[in-house]
Amino acid sequence: DAKTTQPNSMESNEEEPVHLPCNHSTISGTDYIHWYRQLPSQGPEYVIHGLTSNVNNRMASLAIAEDRKSSTLILHRATLRDAAVYYCIRNSGGSNYKLTFGKGTLLTVNP
Amino acid sequence: EAQVTQNPRYLITVTGKKLTVTCSQNMNHEYMSWYRQDPGLGLRQIYYSMNVEVTDKGDVPEGYKVSRKEKRNFPLILESPSPNQTSLYFCASSLWSNSPLHFGNGTRLTVT
């Protein structure tokens, strides 16, 4: 089963860090973990991805558990523009390009 | 500007009338894919393509066809649309299988 599990919703205050969890307990050794976010009336936007070690970019950080069964997207200082639905997906790549997005986490950022 | 372009943005049609939603990318990406998004169900993959003339089914392929005759284009074809295909559709492309996906702005389809 390629599905990931995320909380339906989370809430944060502006300028505070946000930790968005994702469970992918059946992940295989070669699956990448990708995160996307979607604003209303827009297509999903790439945020970050990784395989084993933690990853950082200008948008966020990705912390991957040592056993790779879970990961956490970290927004270091939430802004109002970060309010969106966040999707965590497993990407097995290669000849099997089936990507399952799931329902995502709706992040609300309070001013 | 690097982008994935879908057309049309909005489409209202009637049951059984064949339609095509176009998708084009200008990034020379190998992989392209189609998704539908429905309330409460998230995004579900319809079809994907790994290269020209190479396509495969995603999770919900019934009622849809695709073709990949050129690297940049990946049209989604509904031969005989039905009301249960009313949805928001997204096309995406990526350089390789594990590369980040670039999404289009979506096509909202209504079948009456």
**Which series of helices and strands of chain A comes N to C?**
EEEEEEEEE
- How much strand content do the residues of chain A show? over 45%
Which strand order spans the largest sheet of chain A, edge to edge or round the barrel?
Answer: 1-9-8-3-4
Total strands of chain B: the figure is 11
**Total of helices of chain B:** 0
* Helix coverage percent of chain A: under 10%
* Largest interface, counted by CB within 8 Å of the partner chain's CB: A-B, 23 and 27 residues
- Uncertain ranges of chain A: none
Large-scale geometry of chain A = globular
Largest sheet of chain B: 7 strands, mixed
- Form type of chain B: globular
Mean pLDDT across the residues of chain B is 95
Separate helix tally of chain A: 0
The rounded distance between the terminal residues' Cα atoms of chain B is 36 Å
Structural Rg of chain A: 13 Å
**What proportion of the residues of chain B form beta strands (DSSP E)?**
over 45%
* Largest sheet descriptor of chain A: 5 strands, mixed
Supply Rg of chain B: 13 Å
Distance between the termini of chain A: 38 Å
Count of individual beta strands of chain A? 9
| Class by alpha and beta content of chain B | mainly beta
Description:
The complex is a heterodimer of chains A (111) and B (112). With 111 residues, chain A is mostly beta strands. Chain A has strands spanning 9-13, 18-23, 32-38, 45-50, 55-56, 61-64, 70-75, 84-91, 105-110. In chain A, strand 3 and strand 4 form a beta hairpin. The radius of gyration of chain A is 13 Å and the shape is globular. In chain B, the strands form two sheets. In chain B, strands 2, 4, 5, 6, 9, 10 and 11 form a seven-stranded mixed sheet that branches. The model of chain B has no long low-confidence stretch (mean pLDDT 95). The termini of chain B are far apart. In chain B, 0% of the residues lie in helices and 51% in strands. Chain B has 112 residues and is mainly beta. Chains A and B meet through strand 3 and strand 4 of A and strand 4, strand 5 and strand 10 of B.
